[in-house]
Amino acid sequence: MEPEITASRAIVRYTKGKPQHVRDLIVSEYALTIKVNGSELVTMVCTPDHIEDLVVGYLLSEGLIRRYSDIKRMRIDWKQGFAYVESDRVNPLFSDLKQKRYVTSCCGGSREGFVFAQDALLTKQLNKQTVHLSPDDCMAFMNQLQESADTFKQTGGVHNTALCNTQGMLINRMDIGRHNALDKLYGYCVRHQLPLTGTFLVFSGRISSEILLKAAKIGCEVLLSKSAPTERAIELAEQLGITTVGFIRNQSFNVYTCPERIG
Fold it and tell me: Pfam families, per this entry (predicted)?
């Protein structure tokens, strides 16, 4: 049985200095261990929804498998918190899975040593220009992401991302971890063979180098964010030909790289 993604808790809320006993919705954390061919690969802390998409997106973006068809079988044990994956096409670089990795709900240094060794092989050069957005488009798509973020409205504790084209939002995903939300989205696209030409990402969180690389692996040439990019992310976006737009709020935003797709 799948766990609930939120839980109700009794809290004390202060408004203008006055306490009030109320109940509040809190987002759940779920520890998921991925086992590949019987060996533990990683334990990640995530929001317990769209777990199959998360596992597929993670394995693909980390380079452990090259395509969805490399997975022969997958089974989720919700009670014990395990995802069992069987594959006879595991990337040889990951043949020794004895050094288990732990991934928290935050992202950054805990994952960098694992992913960057494969980045040169997995990222795509995105010098094409199939996406052109007006300033109004940038604001409208960010507003649409925020309007669709029901769990965030209830708890304030998750990140949201959406795959869009100029006609509208195609799919959205959320998680307590920014990287998990993107892996869920990527996994869905691959499992359902969703065409990615002419698509772009809208994202609620900071654009770190890892987030930028995940966008490149998905194949999106534009990344719109409510927050800021890091310097390393900007450098990578310039190298890969990705348009990064940040601080989309209050009728204002910054275009950091490849501005020819905006305006």
Answer: FdhD-NarQ
Residues designated catalytic? 107
6-35 pLDDT, tens digit each: 999 999 999 999 999 999 999 999 999 999
Name all domains of the chain by residue range, CATH numbers in brackets.
30-120 (3.10.20.10), 135-261 (3.40.140.10)
- pLDDT tens column, 164-185: 999 999 999 999 999 999 999 9
Name the nearest CA neighbour of 1 among 98, 100, 77, 90: 77
| Closest-CA residue to 247 (of 222, 233, 262, 227) | 227
| DSSP result, 219-246 | T-SEEEESSPBPHHHHHHHHHHT-EEEE
48 in Cβ contact with 179 (< 8 Å): no
Rounded distance, CA 222 to CA 248, Å?
14
The number of C-alpha atoms within 13 Å of 222 and in the hemisphere containing its C-beta is 26
User: pTM of the prediction?
Assistant: 0.88
Helices (H), the chain: 51-61, 109-122, 135-148, 150-155, 178-191, 209-218, 231-240
What percent of the residues of the chain are helix, what percent strand, and what percent coil, each to the nearest 5?
A: 35, 35, 35
Place of tokens 């002419």: 198
The closest of 191, 170, 194 to 67, measured between CA atoms, is 191
